[in-house]
User: Fold this.
Amino acid sequence: MTEDLFFNILLILLWAGLACVRIYYRTRPLASQNAEEEQPEGKERVGGWIGVILSIGILGMITTVVLYLIALYVIPLPFILDFQLPLPSIIRWIGVLTGFISIPFLIWIHRTLGKYFAAQLELKEKHKLITVGPYSRVRHPMYTVFILFTSSMALITVNLLIVIFCLAVVLSFPFIARKEEAMLTRLFGDEYRQYLGRTGRFFPRLRRPKKEA
Ligand code: SAH
Assistant:
């Protein structure tokens, strides 16, 4: 039980860390200043069924994590705790490690993407392609961080419901990334096609791309 408490304190610290970074970068004057400068037709909704799955995944995960903590420490909610998986602590430790690694990465990514960050897929008036820092080897490092962070929630809680919501989030990102890549290819053309050729989508490429003839 004390071990459980320890993992759950780390879980809360991780959420607090992620929330602080997100709130800081979403409310900075720089971000709102640039919102006025969107390109007129450069906005795409992450709509359709993929938007629905992503929203269900995120909302489901947040709600279940809250209910999981309530079930453990406030009022017994057997429904949630019935989904606990009998997995060894090492799995939970891997989750803690993954979660804590994601936060400095998220700061690095926000600092590099700067004013081009957007909660939706959109293009700013003088949008430039960022290809440095975390973007030098990976096209969607922020999505990688969210994949790692949601996975860390599933690993720390070892709760099957949270694992299912985590899968919904993780499986949505390849579809969103593909849509974003199509949007950026429309704007940047060959510059983005070349960038596509030398980077990995969520993780760095293991092998160097072949030189084009
Ligand atoms: N998919 C990226 C960025 C997420 S924020 C990541 O996972 O790190 C979403 C916004 O970033 C989109 O509106 C898109 O216009 C912008 N964007 C994505 N990649 C970019 C890049 N390499 N340079 C500049 N802007 C980019």
